[in-house]
Write a structure and sequence with these properties.
7-stranded antiparallel β-sheet; two-stranded antiparallel ribbon; Cathepsin B, Chain A; alpha+beta; elongated; about 425 residues
Length: about 425
C-alpha cells in the first residue's frame, strides 16, 4: 500500500498545473491588473489588445512559443495564408510555418529571433528586429516602439526574452505585447504558454533586462520585433530551399563556405568563360538545396490551397518561372530553382571583383522583374540570409581582404588558369 502511494506521489510530482507568478509580475485578471488595463485603455494604449485577444493561442508544443506567437499575430493582422488549414477554413496554424526552419527542428529546439523574423517575412509581414541593449537610449526606443504598437490596430510588438530575468521558471520565450500603462511604465505580456502563466504586467525596465539575455544558440542578445502587414505581397509560392536544410545542416554551411571562397578568386579573362564557370560552381554548391514547386509536394500544396487562390497562384507561378527562365543564369541550369537561388543570392557589394560582377548582373535582371517575381526574390533572399547565419558550422569568411588586387588563387597570379576552375565539375 505504501509502495503504491509512493509511486502515485512520484508520478504527480512530475506534472504541473500552472505556476504562481513571481512578485515582478501582476496577473492580468487581478484587481490591480484590471485597473492597469482600464487606465491603459482610457489612455488609448491598449488598442492592439483586442485584435490579439481575439486570436489568443496556447502553444501546442513546449518549444512552439515562437510559432504560436507568430500564428497569433498573423491571424490578428488578418493575413490570408491563401492555403486551407482544415477545409473549408483558410487560417494560419503552426503546421503551415515551415519555410525557414523545418518544423521537426523547431519542435525539438525552438527558433531564434532571426528565424522568427524570417518566418514573419516569408508570410507577408514587415519585420524589424532590435537586439536588446542595457542603455537608456534602447529603453527609450523600446518604449516608443511599444507605444506606437499598442495605440495602433495594425502593428504588433513581439518580445523575445529570458523568463528567468522576470523571476519565472524557464529561459528563452516569445510572446506578443498588448498594452502599456504609462504611469507605472508597465507592459502587458500575452504569454502564449497559458498552461504555465496567465497574461501579466511587468515593468518595462525589467523586460528590457530580459531582452538583453544572450541566446546561447546565436551568441546574440534577445530583443523585440516590430511586425505589420506588407500589403500587395504573398508568401513564397514558387521557389525555396529544401526542407532538410536547417540550422544543423553542415552540407549547406559547407556549400556556402565553398561558394564564398570561390568568389574571392580573381575572375577569368574571358567574360563568357567566367560566367559559365560561376554558374557551374553555384550549381555544384546549391543544386542539391534548390526547391521548385514542380519538384516538391506540389500536388499536396494544391490540395491545401483554396480554390479561390489556387488559380491566382498558378498564374503567378507561371509568370515567376517565365521571368527567371529569361535570365542568362537559366540558360546554364536545367532547373529554374537553381537560377532563382542565384538571382536571389545576397551578394555583398565590394566582397570581390568576381562577386560584384555576378551580383550586378543579378541586380540588372531584378530591375526588369514584375512585382510578383520581385516579391518571390525578396522572400527567397530573406530565407537564404537566415540559413547562412544559422547553419552550422558557422559561415565565417574574411571579406576584408588587405589588398583586393591579389587573389588567394596563386595560379592566376602567374597568368595561368584559375585553380578553382579545376574544382568545378561539369
Amino acid at each position: 500500500m505504501s509502495q503504491r502511494r509512493s509511486l502515485k506521489m512520484s508520478v504527480t510530482a512530475k506534472n504541473f498545473y500552472r505556476r504562481p507568478l513571481p512578485e515582478t509580475c501582476i496577473e492580468f485578471s487581478s484587481e490591480l491588473g484590471k485597473r492597469l488595463f482600464t487606465e491603459a485603455l482610457i489612455q488609448g494604449s491598449a488598442n492592439i489588445y483586442f485584435k490579439l485577444a481575439s486570436q489568443f493561442r496556447t502553444q501546442d508544443e513546449p518549444a512552439y512559443c515562437g510559432l504560436s506567437t507568430l500564428v497569433m499575430v498573423l491571424n490578428a493582422l488578418e493575413v490570408d495564408p491563401e492555403k486551407v488549414w482544415k477545409a473549408p477554413w483558410r487560417f494560419y496554424h503552426e503546421s503551415m510555418l515551415d519555410c525557414c526552419v523545418p518544423l521537426e527542428h523547431i519542435r525539438k529546439s525552438g527558433i531564434t529571433l532571426q528565424q522568427f523574423s524570417c518566418l514573419a517575412t516569408c508570410n507577408r509581414l514587415k519585420s524589424a528586429v532590435s537586439y536588446g541593449e542595457t542603455t537608456p537610449d534602447f529603453l527609450q526606443k523600446f518604449r516608443k516602439s511599444l507605444v506606437n504598437s499598442v495605440k495602433s490596430d495594425d502593428q504588433v510588438l513581439v518580445a523575445s526574452y529570458d523568463r528567468s530575468v522576470l523571476g519565472q521558471t524557464g529561459s528563452g520565450h516569445f510572446s506578443p505585447l498588448a498594452a502599456y500603462h504609462a504611469d507605472s511604465d508597465q507592459v502587458l505580456i500575452m504569454d502564449v504558454a497559458r498552461f504555465k502563466y496567465p497574461p501579466h504586467w511587468v515593468k518595462l525596465e525589467t523586460l528590457q533586462k530580459a531582452l538583453c539575455s544572450v541566446d546561447t544558440t546565436t551568441k546574440k542578445p534577445r530583443g523585440f520585433v516590430e511586425l505589420e502587414l506588407k500589403k500587395g505581397t504573398r508568401p513564397l509560392i514558387m521557389y525555396g530551399l529544401k526542407a532538410y536544410v536547417n540550422v544543423n545542416d553542415s552540407d549547406f554551411a559547407t556549400s556556402v563556405i565553398s561558394w564564398n571562397e570561390f568568389l574571392l578568386c580573381d575572375p577569368l579573362e574571358d567574360d563568357e568563360e567566367e560566367f559559365q564557370l560561376c554558374c557551374r560552381k553555384f550549381g555544384q554548391c546549391f543544386a542539391p538545396h534548390a526547391l521548385c514547386c514542380t519538384q516538391k509536394t506540389f500536388d499536396a500544396d494544391q490540395k491545401n490551397s483554396c480554390t479561390e487562390c489556387s488559380s491566382d497562384q498558378s498564374e503567378a507561378c507561371k509568370l515567376i518561372c517565365a521571368e527567371i527562365r529569361k535570365t542568362r543564369f537559366a540558360e546554364v541550369f536545367s532547373s529554374s530553382a537553381v537560377a532563382a537561388l542565384l538571382v536571389a543570392w545576397p551578394f555583398k557589394h565590394g566582397y570581390s571583383e568576381r562577386s560584384d560582377r555576378i551580383g550586378n548582373l543579378a541586380e540588372k535582371y531584378k530591375k526588369g522583374f514584375s512585382a510578383e517575381t520581385m516579391n518571390e526574390m525578396d522572400q527567397l533572399t530573406t530565407q537564404i540570409r537566415t540559413l547562412i547565419c544559422c547553419s552550422k558550422p558557422p559561415v565565417v569568411i574574411n571579406i576584408n581582404k588587405p589588398d583586393t588586387a591579389h587573389s588567394k588563387c596563386s595560379k592566376n597570379k602567374i597568368g595561368e588558369s584559375c585553380a578553382c576552375a579545376n574544382d568545378v565539375h561539369l
